[in-house]
Amino acid sequence: MLSLFSFTNQNPNLDKRDERYRKLLAKGKNKGVVVTAVGRELLGFIWAIGIQVETAQKESLQRAA
Question: What is the distance between the alpha carbons of residues 65 and 57, in angstroms, rounded to a whole number?
Answer without folding.
Answer: 12
